[in-house]
Amino acid sequence: MNLLLLSNSTQYGRGYLEHALDTVTAFLPANARLAFVPYALADHTTYTARVREALEPSGITVRGVHENPDPVAELAASDAVFIGGGNSFRLLDALYRTGLREAVRDAVRGGLPYMGASAGTNMAAPTLRTSNDMPIVQPPSFEALGLVPFQINPHYLDPDPASTHKGETREERLTEFLEENDVPVLGLREGSWLRVDGDRAHVRGARPARLFSRTAAPRELAPDSDVSRLLTTEPRFDAPAR
């Protein structure tokens, strides 16, 4: 498979996708017709226009799947697919309702380039269980696309040592997940992404990632780290630690 999984699509002080634009345009086929899936936000038209504004100057034609009465047909007519960020539960629910969950999964496994950002990156994992989002709707299942066999946590945040906030840290929440599930979780900080090309996977971007697993202490992964071994993961969900 050919995947570009971004932690974020917006970076402070920069335009939409600007921080990763060279990577995005190099990833997408030249003069691609891109199927954009805007379902993570309520206003599909405005969201699609934002993606067009960012990518069409690079020769990429952006088509929102909602603009076609048959979203699956729009996907089939495209050279690549981009699932944008927003609320992961709303997004997954829409993928189930439109038939795009199975269609995207099968097309990407067949070679269609897949780009995700934030919620779109969550979709590439087996389930939504490591999403940061509030479940504002109830999808039929937490089962996502499963394009990679491990979990990803976009927007991973480190604890602020100067903060007096006493709530759970992101690391504590992921540790709780691992108490009930034996599946590695790759935390992607803002400005970082995961690139998968066939049986190879690398952390890319400006910042290191953080890898969590049940059997080892959290580990920092510098940009350009090879994480291909994660593609051989055999996930075990609902497997409480004994």
UniProtKB/TrEMBL annotation:
Q: Which GO terms describe its cellular component?
A: cytoplasm
Q: Name one GO biological process term.
A: proteolysis
Task: Identify the keywords attached in UniProt to this record, alphabetized.
Answer: Cytoplasm, Dipeptidase, Hydrolase, Protease, Serine protease
Which parts of the sequence are annotated with region: Disordered? Answer: 222-242
Descriptive protein name: dipeptidase E
Q: Which residues form the signal peptide?
A: none
Entries under Pfam families matching the protein: Peptidase_S51 (PF03575)
Q: Where in the cell is it found?
A: Cytoplasm
Q: What is its EC number?
A: 3.4.13.21
Question: Which family is annotated?
Answer: Belongs to the peptidase S51 family.
EC supergroup of this enzyme: hydrolase
> What GO molecular function annotations does the UniProt record carry, in alphabetical order?
dipeptidase activity; serine-type peptidase activity
**Main localization of the protein described in the UniProt heading:** cytoplasm
Reaction(s) this enzyme catalyzes, per UniProt: Dipeptidase E catalyzes the hydrolysis of dipeptides Asp-|-Xaa. It does not act on peptides with N-terminal Glu, Asn or Gln, nor does it cleave isoaspartyl peptides
